[in-house]
Write a structure and sequence with these properties.
Layout: E1 4-8, E2 12-19, E3 22-25, E4 35-36, E5 38-41, E6 46-48, H1 50-53, E7 63-65, H2 78-83, E8 90-93, E9 99-105, E10 108-113, H3 114-133, E11 140-143, H4 155-174, H5 182-201, E12 206-214, E13 217-223, H6 225-231, H7 233-236, H8 240-250, H9 270-280, H10 293-305, E14 318-320, E15 324-330, E16 335-342, E17 346-348, E18 350-358, E19 362-368, E20 380-386, E21 398-406, E22 412-424, H11 436-443, H12 453-457, H13 461-467, E23 474-475, E24 494-500, E25 503-507, H14 513-554, H15 564-581, H16 590-639, H17 650-676, H18 687-705, H19 716-724, H20 737-741
Parallel strand pairs: 1-11, 18-23
Antiparallel strand pairs: 1-2, 2-3, 2-4, 5-6, 5-7, 8-9, 9-10, 12-13, 14-17, 15-16, 15-19, 18-21, 19-20, 20-25, 21-22, 22-24
Length: 762
């Protein structure tokens, strides 16, 4: 199982993986660990990441970046209206009322949701992780949310200050309306971002120069850190409020903070560092990689949640960032009632059970109860219709239990509902055993914030991974009061059963299942189209590379291996192919390029083969000659009756001599013929034939000449004397044969008498 963490940033993204050796941030196909959050749409395919970033200016209308800000926002949102003027691409209102992105893709106008565009980027990051891990990625942790924050304060805002300044300065100095030309504005934005980074490390005046900026006019200006900070006073003033807010929520004082670690690109701005340090009254810690810390943390959280990894005991409790309430129509009060079910910073995942008394189906409306704290204007979450609610047999209200939940992903839902049926029975009638589900529901009714001891003890370690904070509670205004509960009558003996109720969800700003499946299908088609286009481009590039390679080598290392007429003909063919690539062959199907490459290789392969043969042939002939010389020496030594080879059989050595002479004759013959052959024609003998001849010679000769000498045993007389003399130099302490014959008391200890080493047996 793969364990992956993704930092899905506004301008850039990072991917980290957890391995046995720890957590590692991985690089993309450009060997860069930072992947731009950018997607470019073309006439035949999409470019995502670094490839799209290079098209920001050349394909400005169809290159999308900074789209993260439009998640969950209606087109009528004032924030969206304010951002329109800063975009190079068009945004439109979708049928759902949300903000869509309009681009030209595959030669037609297309509208994509923000979720679709984000899915494209995530697919690319998933592909990057899979190429490194060499296995599919199914689950991951993605960073999106903070505890206290300013959603519009970041490095981009500081860039905008510089852009606005130079737009005004160049407008006065060069009479240019920069904001009317989106490409000029994008070029200026890129240069201002570079200038901002330079000012973080340099306090002196720094130049900004752009050649042929607009209307063939070169522009230039200067900026220094001091002036830049004066221009950013209002932005720097927004640094402290989130810090103050997070301390208030945590109920901590500045003195309680042990250390402050800063991450993120904008924290490199010296003035931002100074503001944070001054607020907490201590030096800041920068031990983490400011760009990669978030994605590494995501990978750690993924490892904690994954059953495939065992990590050190380390607990992370997620929280609900905004308070969530439910609203419903109350028949008793003839109006609406509401209740806050999850407070701000409530632990998640978490479940609660609410009790209602109803005679008919009813609707629960979920919403964020502090709209002033939201980054979006609409606080509504969803509506949930609890269906098939009926009164009791005596006409009284039925008891309905509704379970609400915030899951591990932070998503709120009404997960289930059940109706409790109550039936009376006579005094002498044996009470029916209550339904097991009803028993469990009753056990879960405890005070709202009091954890149930039994339930917590029953958690297995695997459940504790993701569900450690899940508890079932009964929501009530007080310990004794139930929601909309009528006055209680005298209790009678009853039997009960529970019936599950269907729930109809009406989700706001969320994609329904049918539409989600359609988006998944479309994304699959686009991925396939991107793959086909990549294969087509690769085939085209292969033709172009072959043309350049062969043209250079025909006048270089291949020159001696092709006749002048063939070289001129082939060179002309290569030039025609190059011209074709930039004219009629600019946009052809993949198979056309494959066939064109095969046609060129049919002409070029014989030349390449002759060159390779001429390189390998001398080495292989040399190796064969060495083997022949070695065997000739052995034959000579055998004939001279040298001790080393006098054990070999004469018939076998005749085989060696015969094979060696044949190999020598073959080699000399081929060498003579090859020396007479021109290099511009195919060789008389090929490298594989020489290799085969060498192997054939070795297979016959090596087993014969490598036979070991037989071992020589000592004469019997010497062996007998050695036995009578007994052990030498005190070696051997067992009694000899004579002692045994005389019946001495010498005893040899048996194996059972030896003391075994002691062992600790677990």
């Amino acid at each position: 199982m793969s364990v992956v963490g993704i930092d899905l940033g506004f301008q850039s993204c990072y991917v980290a993986v957890a391995r046995a050796g720890g957590i590692e941030t991985i690089a993309n196909e450009y060997s860069d660990r930072c992947t731009p959050a950018c997607i470019s749409f073309g006439p035949k395919n999409r470019s995502i990441g670094a490839a799209a970033k290079s098209q920001v200016i050349s394909n400005a209308k169809n290159t999308v970046q900074g789209f993260k800000r439009f998640h969950g926002r209606a087109f009528s949102d004032p924030f969206v209206e304010a951002e329109k003027s800063n975009l190079a691409y068009d945004i439109v209102q979708l049928p759902t009322g949300l903000t869509g992105i309009k681009v030209k893709y595959m030669e037609e106008e297309r509208n994509f949701t923000t979720e679709q565009v984000t899915a494209m980027l995530l697919s690319k990051l998933k592909e990057t992780a899979e190429s490194v891990l060499k296995k599919p990625v199914v689950d991951c942790v993605v960073s999106v949310l903070a505890i206290a924050f300013d959603t519009t304060l970041g490095g981009r805002k500081f860039d905008e200050v510089l852009v606005n300044h130079f737009c005004e300065e160049f407008g006065k100095k060069y009479k240019l309306d920069i904001k009317s030309k989106i490409r000029a504005l994008l070029r200026l934005s890129q240069e201002c971002e570079k200038l901002k980074k330079l000012m973080s490390a340099n306090a002196s005046d720094l130049p900004l120069s752009i050649e042929c900026f607009m209307n063939d006019v070169d522009v230039s200006g200067t900026m220094n850190r001091g002036k830049f900070l004066e221009m950013c006073d209002d932005l720097l003033a927004r640094v402290e409020p989130p810090l103050r807010s997070v301390l208030e929520q945590a109920k901590l004082k500045k003195e309680d903070i042990y250390a402050v670690e800063i991450v993120g690109g904008a924290t490199r701005i010296p003035a931002v560092k100074e503001k944070i340090s001054k607020f907490f009254g201590k030096e800041l810690s920068t031990t983490l990689n400011a760009d990669e810390a978030v994605t590494r943390g995501c990978a750690l959280q993924c490892a904690i949640l994954s059953p495939a990894f065992k990590v050190r005991e380390f607990s992370i409790t997620d929280v609900v960032p905004y308070p969530i309430s439910l609203r419903w129509n109350s028949p008793a009060e003839e109006g609406s009632s509401d209740c806050e079910v999850f407070t701000k910073n409530h632990a998640a995942p978490f479940s609660k059970v609410l009790t209602f008394y109803r005679k008919e189906p009813f609707t629960l409306e979920a919403y964020y109860s502090s709209p002033q704290d939201l980054p979006y204007p609409d606080p509504a979450i969803a509506q949930f219709l609890v269906q098939k609610v009926t009164p009791q047999s005596d006409g009284s209200s039925s008891k309905v239990k509704v379970k609400v939940r915030v899951n591990v992903h932070g998503i709120f839902s009404v997960s289930s509902a059940s109706l409790v049926e109550v039936l009376k029975f006579e005094e002498n009638e044996e009470p029916m055993e209550t339904d097991q589900n009803a028993k469990e529901e009753e056990k879960m009714q405890v005070d709202q914030e009091e954890p149930h001891a039994e339930e917590q003890q029953q958690h297995t370690p695997a459940e504790n991974k993701a569900e450690s904070e899940e508890m079932e509670t009964s929501q009530a205004g007080s310990k004794d009061k139930k929601m909309d509960q009528p006055p209680q009558a005298k209790k009678a003996k009853v039997k009960t059963s529970t019936v599950d109720l269907p729930i109809e969800n009406q989700l706001l700003w969320q994609i329904d299942r049918e539409m989600l499946n359609l988006y998944i299908e479309n994304e699959g088609k686009m991925i396939m189209q991107d793959k086909l286009e990549k294969e087509r481009n690769d085939a085209k590039n292969a033709v172009e590379e072959y043309v350049y390679e062969m043209r250079d080598k025909l006048s270089g290392e291949y020159e001696k291996f092709v006749s002048e007429a063939d070289r001129n003909s082939f060179t002309l063919k290569l030039e025609d192919t190059e011209n074709w690539l930039y004219e009629d062959g600019e946009d052809q199907p993949k198979q056309v390029y494959v066939d064109k490459l095969a046609e060129l290789k049919n002409l070029g392969h014989p030349i390449k083969m002759r060159f390779q043969e001429s390189e390998e042939r001398p080495k292989l002939f040399e190796e064969l000659g060495k083997q022949i010389q070695q065997y000739m020496k052995v034959i000579s030594s055998f004939k001279n009756k040298e001790d080393q080879y006098d054990h070999l059989d004469a018939a076998d050595m005749m085989k060696v001599e015969k094979s060696t002479n044949e190999a020598m004759e073959w080699m000399n013959n081929k060498l003579n013929l090859q020396n007479k052959q021109s290099l511009t024609v195919d060789p008389v003998v090929k490298a594989r034939e020489i290799e085969a001849k060498t192997k054939e010679l070795m297979s016959v000769c090596s087993p014969i000449i490598s036979k070991p000498k037989p071992k020589v045993e000592p004469p019997k007389e010497e062996q007998k004397n050695a036995e009578q003399n007994g052990p030498v130099d005190g070696q051997g302490d067992s009694p000899g044969p004579q002692a045994a014959e005389q019946g001495t008391d010498t005893a040899v200890p048996s194996d059972s008498d030896k003391k075994l080493p002691e062992m600790d047996i677990d």
